[in-house]
Amino acid sequence: MNNKENTYSFKYFFNNYRNRYLLGVVWLVLVDVLQLVIPWLLGDFTDRLQLKTIQMRGIIYYALIIIGVAILTAIFRYLWRLYIVGTSQLLEKQIRENFYNHLLKLSTNYFNEQKTGDLMAHATNDIKAVRQAMGPGVVMFFDALFLTVATITILLFKIDIRLTLIALIPLPFLAIISTYFSKSIHEKFTAVQEAFSNLTDKVQENFSGIRVIKAFTQEDKEIEKFASANKLNFEKNIDLIKTWGLFHPMIQFITALSFLIVIWYGGTLVIQGIISLGDFVAFNSYLGLLTWPMMAVGFVINLIQRGTASLKRLNKIFAEEEEIYDKNVLDIDSIEGKIEFNNLSFRYNEKEEYVLKNINLEINPGETTGFLGRTGTGKTTIVNLLLRLFNVNDNEILIDGYDINSLSIKLLREEIGIVPQDNFLFSSTIADNIAFFDPVNTDRKEVEKAAKITEIYDDIMEFPNGFDTILGERGVTLSGGQKQRISMARALIKKPKILILDDSFSAVDTQTEEKILNNLRPVMKNRTVILISHRISTLKNTDKIFVLDEGQILERGTHEELIENQQLYYDIFQKQQLEEKIANIN
Ligand SMILES: Nc1ncnc2c1ncn2[C@@H]1O[C@H](COP(=O)(O)OP(=O)(O)O)[C@@H](O)[C@H]1O
Ligand SMILES: [Mg+2]
How many CB atoms are located within 10 Å of the residue 484 CB? Predict the structure, then answer.
């Protein structure tokens, strides 16, 4: 990658792999030279046959040369494929790796704005298009260039100028037709792929949502939708077949025109004794060699156009800057866990309203703090900011008295253990999910201990393979509460200085919740804990509770103090008690 401009270019690729490409082109040209030898030999051979100046030994001599040429051609073909097409694969690997690395560095904001499908399309189609331009594109370019120039030169000077000029007239049309058709075929082929992926997406979605479909008796409608997607797929395929079906006959027709000219005019020249029979035979063979390069011109034009467009799209993504990065970080390798917010206001986007307004708070190391508030009041946002998932102004958030912007992202995220609200488990074993932070150095005992603390151990032991049960598509399906408890175990195993549970008990029943909170107490001694919930039962034993509403801290204090205040917290408390009572009656 060109660091200055942060962009890829075809020139950069060539420079980077100059030797491989040079060697590849050398092999390619050697193959072409060998190809040119055969018609020459054929012509010679014919003349000598006609003049009867050849004996049996001579025939063997020609046969051996032809075999030798064939063997060398095979070897050189293998080599250019390895050098040019192989290099383009290497290049694709390199771009893909850089692309992935680049994406992982971008902020979470970027992924909110981009559709995953679009990114996947860039990662597959665009990178492939660049590879094809740098592989097959390069091959065809040099192949066509050399074969065309060499063949025409031979025809002009070895055989006959007039015959050559007349016979070549139809050939440019080959290039024009293949340019048009290869574009059209590519478009239709893309349409086929889209139609098919649309079809499979539809089926996949329907099978995952089969219970909803059945519950709402939508089977017939879904069958209809499937039939129309299937029909579309069929039609796109037929479209493609029609285009292919036209392409080949047209090429053959134009090639035939050339041969027609040669038979008519070339034949006349032979009869008039202007060229020999051998020349005539050689001419026909050379003409046959020209068909492919003419078609290749069209293919190359399209490959390069597509490659250029794809490169442009990729470069645009590569130009995306990291939003959050370390700058002048302090040399600190651990934290105590003190958190301060200094009149912090925050909005996700300059066009949007403030999500957090004038937040002032202080959490001491070792304290357990609760955040209470309705959905959308900014609780999760506070957590995002503590993890530096979004940028804040200097000195708005302090950790251990240091500005959060002066702490390295790595340190911060290592020292904070978070159970995100939208918890996510990977399709690997339960043990690997729990030991996600450091799978290699975490032994099974620690995993089990964490599972016991979060009251998920017994559930796991009931699964067929215990901790080695694989989660995901064909594995065990977990309930929401089980997922939350596994996520909690995952955060605990990091032994974080700051533990954040963002609405982590929403799918856990209150009794289990109480057990987990009790189990946590000894473990979290000397660690800062933040509990986020809309349930007062989760928070009532914490050292301090912040009540948030519409991005502001409305109230703060212990459970008892807040009850005494008789404001929002008290209202919510009363409401939830009432709900509990009703639930108990039922
Ligand atoms: N990544 C984001 N980009 C833009 N707006 C967001 C983003 N995340 C949350 N918000 C908005 O910020 C507000 C607070 O959200 P959040 O912090 O998730 O609330 P809570 O966790 O209290 O339910 C909501 O209005 C939400 O729509
Ligand atoms: Mg939230």
Answer: 25
Question: Residue 33 corresponds to which amino acid?
Answer: V
- pLDDT at residue 120, as a whole number: 86
How far does the centroid of ligand 2 lie from the alpha carbon of residue 63, in Å? Answer: 81
Q: 223 CA distance to ligand 1 centroid (A)? A: 38
Q: Which atom of ligand 1 is nearest to the CA of 548?
A: 22
Instruction: Kindly state the tokens that stand for 163.
Output: 């015959």
- In the three-class reduction of DSSP (H, G, I as helix; E, B as strand; rest coil), residue 436 is classed as coil
Number of residues that this document lists for the chain:
586
Q: Are 285 and 39 in contact (CB under 8 A)?
A: yes
Nearest CA to ligand 1 atom 7: 348
Tens digits of residue pLDDT in 391-421: 999 999 999 999 999 999 999 999 999 999 9
What whole-number distance in Å separates Cα of residue 15 and Cα of residue 214?
59
pLDDT in tens, 139-151: 999 999 999 999 9
For the segment 523-543, what is each residue's pLDDT rounded down to a tens digit?
888 899 999 998 999 999 999
Q: Is the CB–ligand 1 distance for residue 533 below 6 Å? A: no
DSSP 44-55: HHHHHHHTT---
| 421-477: pLDDT as tens digits | 988 999 899 999 999 999 889 999 999 999 999 999 999 999 989 999 999 765 678
Answer for the pair 311, 9: CB distance below 8 angstroms, yes or no.
yes
Let me know: does 569 contact 562? Beta carbons within 8 Å: yes
